[in-house]
Amino acid sequence: MTAPLALPRTVVLVGLMGAGKTNIGRRLAARLHLPFVDADAEIEAAAGETIEEIFRRHGEAVFRDGERRVIARLLESPVHVLATGGGAFMDPNTRENIRRRGISVWLRAELDVLLARVARRGNRPLLKQGDPRAVLQGLMEKRHPIYAEADIVIDSIDGPPELTLIEVIAALRRYLAEHPLQSTAAVREPAEARQA
Fold first, then answer.
1. Is residue 195 situated within a structural domain?
2. Per the domain annotation, does 4 fall within a domain?
3. What is the mean predicted confidence (pLDDT) over 124-140?
4. What is the pLDDT of residue 31?
5. CATH number of the domain residue 118 falls in
6. Which long-range contacts (CB under 8 A, 24 or more apart) does 112-117 make?
7. Domain count, the chain
8. pLDDT band per the 50, 70, 90 thresholds, residue 2
9. Helices marked H in 33-159 — which ranges?
């Protein structure tokens, strides 16, 4: 029998829209008996508006600023599974905060898989800026090199989510065996970051 997986830090799922961050995140949290938090839902609760409304009324820059602050707050919480928005990991401050306080997992998916998944939902502001295939292709070219900085990379396949979940859990076990981590309770913010 395999020993339970004890996580010293929050697992932070990153990747493009449609990669399965929320779906896999919920399943991972349930399997590990941890809380699941969707950063986008937390942003909406904090703003009192949907992400689509924030983009439309205030623009992407205002959204990204709120996203940065919400994720920083969430990373201060006890260990949980956190699904981030597709652009969150692109912010250097957020990326550094995740590196210090979490374990990042990039759910990487093929373009056609992403397209099929995002077609099921109409609330993707970035996809309303043109042809969804071209927009996603452009995002892949821009974001994949940054997502590749994640601690763990998992291919999110077009198949049962349970198969991706099994891969995530196995990769977390390997990562923790190779990289013993302090608990986030032992990670202190640099003085200059606290003063910002």
1. no
2. no
3. 77
4. 94
5. 3.40.50.300
6. 112/158, 113/18, 113/156, 113/157, 113/158, 114/16, 114/17, 114/18, 114/19, 115/18, 116/18, 116/158, 117/18, 117/19, 117/20
7. 1
8. low
9. 39-47, 51-58, 60-75, 92-101, 111-118, 132-147
